[in-house]
Amino acid sequence: MRSAWRWLLVITLSASGSQANANDWNMPVGVTDVSADIFGLHMTIFWICVVIGLVVFGAMFYSLFRYRHSKGAKAANFHEHTSVEVLWTAIPVLILVGMAVPATATLKNMYDSSDAELDVMITGQQWRWRYEYLGEDVAFTSNMSTPRTQVSGAETRGEHYLLEVDEPLVLPINRKVRFLMTSDDVIHSWWVPDLAVKQDTIPGFINENWVTINEPGIYRGQCTELCGINHGFMPVVVHAMEEDEFDGWLAERKEAAAEEAMGVDREWAMEELVARGQEIYQSICSSCHQAEGQGSPPAFPALANNEQLISDVDWHLNKVINGVSGAAMPAFRSTLNPVEIAAVVTYTRNAWGNDTGDVVQPSEVAELIAQ
Amino acid sequence: MSPKLPPQPHLQHSSTAVSDGQSQSHAAPPKGILRWLLTTNHKEIGSLYLIFSLTMFFVGGIFALVVRAELFQPGLQLVEPEFFNQMTTMHGLIMVFAAVMPAFTGLANWMIPLQIGAPDMALPRLNNFSFWLLPVAFALLLSTLFMPGGGPNFGWTFYAPLSTNYAPPSTSFFILALHMAGISSILGAINIIATILNMRAPGMRLMDMPLFVWTWLITAFLLIAVMPVLAAVITMMLMDINFGTSFFNAAGGGDPVLFQHLFWTFGHPEVYIMILPAFGIVSAIIPTFARKPLFGYASMVYATAAIAFLSFLVWAHHMFVVGMPLVAELFFMYTTMLIAVPTGVKVFNWVTTLFRGSISFESPMLFALAFVVLFTIGGFSGLMLAIAPADFQYHDTYFVVAHFHYVLVPGAIFAIMAGVYYWLPKWTGNYPNERLAQWHFWFSIIGVNLTFFPMHFAGLAGMPRRIPDYALQFADFNLLSSIGAFFFGASQLLFVLGIILCVRGGKKAPAKAWEGAEDLEWTVPSPAPLHTFETPPVFHRISH
Which of A5, B104, B230, B299 could, after both became Cys, cross-link B266 (CB 3.0–4.6 A)? Predict the structure, then answer.
């Protein structure tokens, strides 16, 4: 059945000269039991439609050809036939019942997120994902890493154009992972076709989904719910590892996180903070406030030469930590750590002609967040 | 108690068009623009609706072409994502509310009185008001594109909170425009129901009415039921935006998912509002050119009613991935699958009407036959989308875009075009140029399939909808779609040309313009005089 489907599409697509492989024009079978079940349902209902279509369109085109007025066809006058009408009402009902049974079983399985071995909190933000390994003290944000120069065409587009991130979500294979999904701003939707997981992330609500990945690999997807200007630039990348490799990765991340937490207490040099802040600014802030801090008013104010920002460091810190209610600016108090907030604020206060000379220390930020 | 008075003699209306521009006035009709501003004649208002709809079809079409031009190849070339989002949003809003819906209302205005033997619509002044709300509403909507922050950019489904807390300042004007369009629809629906229930020719029972009248009667009830829901949901948005309420704002105790439940309670019946009258048109055209009565008239009526009833019970199939409980997913999956049954009955009836007919292929018939095939393909993808587990993969991808464009473009819009070619001889007294119409048909059918068929594959391969730029593996499909879209768009100029030529002249049509046509509109002269059926016609029952 699979090969017939491919064959049909090769014909359809040969006109376009496509060199693509099967997954480029059909749903992927994927790498989980659920994704394979869904693929099976998809192909079953597809072939049911093909058969019904052949019968109905066959009868239609036969009639159109056989009973042409131009060939002197004389019209009959029948316009009712109760038993035929009952039959073609009943048969579709039976087909649908036959389809509903396996669909119901798959759906029940998809809704059973019990007995998970790892919980990952996924938070959608305009326009990035935040992943938090619950109970492990490991959390990070995942931003698109495709440079804007590729989008504009100034640079050749890479193989994974728009589907690559700075830090993928790392998961173990063969373990049941539960996702808890929410959003900080508008509704997003987290989708990886190979995992057959697509779930809206909704502000104020926590949705559940789960996955058990069968094969290691890198799986790519995108945000699928319109979420603003950069909706098209919000990829999802999952890196599925062997279990022991994953355990090693997680231990390493835990250690790094602990180290970073210690950095809050020490005195940081301005150069350190600016260097760190520039990275964070480019990956998180620049999608709205633009690379040179010029913003795109009225929705996204300029930061360069912003009088209020330059004159009032407390105001500046408050906006970054607590966000702006009713506007697009999120609160970063829980998504960035004190070191990161101090770094990005220091950078912003000393870049693009904002030569304030201010240095904000992580310890000050930690105190503000604690209040 | 006052004594019973003898009945007053009725004033006789003149039956000549020149002396009586308005049905209630003997004064000469105002000249120039005022004639059209003040008209209460169902045929003139019908023409206004149709011209408005055709204009908006091109406006919405140009927005679609901006979208397709940007998607012609990967990367951002022509527009910024912000403007791209405004274009997808405006394309949807204009096509749904300003092109498809007014086209059907225009056809209803023209044809329902003619098909039931009524002299006009029941409420002529209301009719004028319903129409003139529309140009105001959509001028306001289009003007938001020039306001600071731009026009609506949150998709035609305007999900909160993107459309409330995160929306551009022009959103309140968008809401006002939609309110006016909604009032127009409700008033139009009331008028249609009043006309059909009260003004049928003596002897015409409900089950004698042509299918176009039946489908519109049911559509009008759908409109009255769901337009107030739309009005409620956009009013709640207005309050959230301007008055600090939190209906859809989780931070204030509101619920963004509630927005979707309310929107689709309106939105799903709305989908059928845009297709049921199309069923009626096709059910008139196929018997005419097969020279054979419609098969299963009664089951057609019951199937339409069943679809309308079910349309209230399926809304959350648009929301399979919002995290509804399992039992809700199952309920909406089953009800949605059930819709395939009455829809199937309709398709089987059309095909059986063709069987053992005597079929000719004039342009209305070509569009109607294309409707049957391509609408059914859209129905098949709809059936696939109904399977909730599979919808987790299809949802919000180009597979969905392909699906609803198949039911709306070669579905609703082809049916409207079929109706226009079918009734143009009655409206103008001239046959449309058949050769031109055939070119229009073949270009349209190539264009529509080239545009929308590849979208199935792009969606299955993983391309989300509403993105201004895409990964490289989707490039081939998007290239094809964009070429198809420009081809389809350009070929619609043939449609306009055909209509203009037909209005100006052409082969003269007799009262019964098509050999196999049976309904009452074919008993009045072509072109239909401004006033028809001032004396109710004698209705002869055709045995169904």
Answer: B230
Lookup result for tokens 């081939």: B476
Residue A69 and residue B352: Cβ atoms within 8 Å? no
Specify the number of domains making up chain B.
Answer: 1
Decide if B189 contacts B224 (C-beta within 8 A). Answer: yes
ipTM exceeding cut-off 0.85 for this assembly: yes
Q: Of residues B346, B403, B405, B456, which has the active-site annotation?
A: B346
Do A219 and A126 lie in one domain? The reply is yes
Active site residue B164: no
- Domain boundary (A198, A230, A260) is at A260
The whole domain housing B515 covers 37-523
For A360-364, B341-345, B349-353, which range has the lowest pLDDT when averaged over its residues? Answer: A360-364
Q: What is the CATH number of the domain that holds B266?
A: 1.20.210.10
Spatial separation of the C-alpha atoms in residues B499 and B495, rounded to whole Å: 6
Q: Which of B20, B70, B120, B519 is catalytic?
A: B120
- Which chain B residues touch A16 with a CB distance below 8 Å? 454, 476-477, 479-480
B391 as an active site residue: the answer is no
Write down the pLDDT at residue A205: 95
Give A351: exposed, middle or buried? Use CB within 10 Å, 0-12, 13-18, 19+.
middle
What does the pLDDT look like over B420-466, one tens digit per residue?
999 999 999 999 999 999 999 999 999 999 999 999 999 999 999 99
Supply the pTM of this predicted model.
0.90
pLDDT digits (tens, 9 = 90+) for A112-150: 999 999 999 999 998 999 999 999 989 999 999 998 889
Torsion angles phi and psi, residue A210, rounded to 5: -155, 165
Encode pLDDT of B229-287 as tens digits. Answer: 999 999 999 999 999 999 999 989 999 999 999 999 999 999 999 999 999 999 999 99
Q: Which of A81, A187, A327 sits opposite B162 (nearest CB)?
A: A187
Task: Yes or no: say if A324 and A332 are a contact pair by the CB < 8 Å rule.
Answer: no
Q: Is residue A1 part of a domain?
A: no
Pick the closest to residue A222 from B388, B160, B473, B482 (CA basis).
B473
| Residues in CB range of A103: below 8 A, 6 or more apart | A41, B333, B387, B388, B389, B390
